[in-house]
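hey so i finally got around to running the thing on that chain from the lab meeting. sorry it took forever, my laptop kept dying and i had to restart like 3 times. anyway pasting the input first so we r on the same page abt which one it is
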Amino acid sequence: MQIHAPDPAYTGSALARANFRLAVRIAFGFVGLLWLVALLGWGLELQRFGVRPREWIGLPGILAAPLLHAGLNHLLANTLPLLVLITAMLHLYPRAALKLLPAVYLGPGIGVWLFAERGTHVGASGLVYGLVAYIFVAGLLRRDRRAIAASLLVSFMYGTLAWGVLPIQPGVSWETHLAAAVIGVAMAILLRRLDVPPPRRYAWEDEPDADGDAGAAGDGFPPDGELPAAYGELPAAGGDAPAAGDDLSPPGAPVRTLH
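ok and heres what got predicted. didnt touch it at all, straight out
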């Protein structure tokens, strides 16, 4: 499988740098909102507004749960991953992000309300798992160095999150994690043709050959049906073949003798 290097004119453009700065601002803005909600709701037990499976009063939690956390440690655990993953997603896959982020924000809550065990489910970890799953699988599907590098980095930094989709730790909403991971994988497959950067092209790929086709220059072969002048001319069909000893050198060619 050939791995393409993205065009430096694309990745190093002013627009790409501006998009990266915008991605950073959005990531910090969302994480700042989480901290603002936590500080304003200190002591108010806002966790009760989370998702409550199969209870009508728990439906609004589908919208509210990602903004609520069970405590300071819970929020701290999600802060750095959200900063890194939202920035990477918006920078590398800006078009796909417009579809993925709403899906991993709302989708896990819907799945939890329908299928999870009784209780109150809160936290932005669904976003974390959805983003990790998307970035990791996108790197496996795309022949793009940036996507592969991001996939390897995510697997190195957050590979241990895979244990969070199993019901092995009490008090952890593994249903949220699992639903978000499934959504992330599915979206990575469905949106694999979005946000593919143009591959790097070299100068020789754009040089036309004798027939006007680009990409053949420098291959060392003459155009089809022709021979270099140094080989002389072949006899026409039905003509006499050259006799032994005939001089086949083109006119004006230097005469060389073998010793």
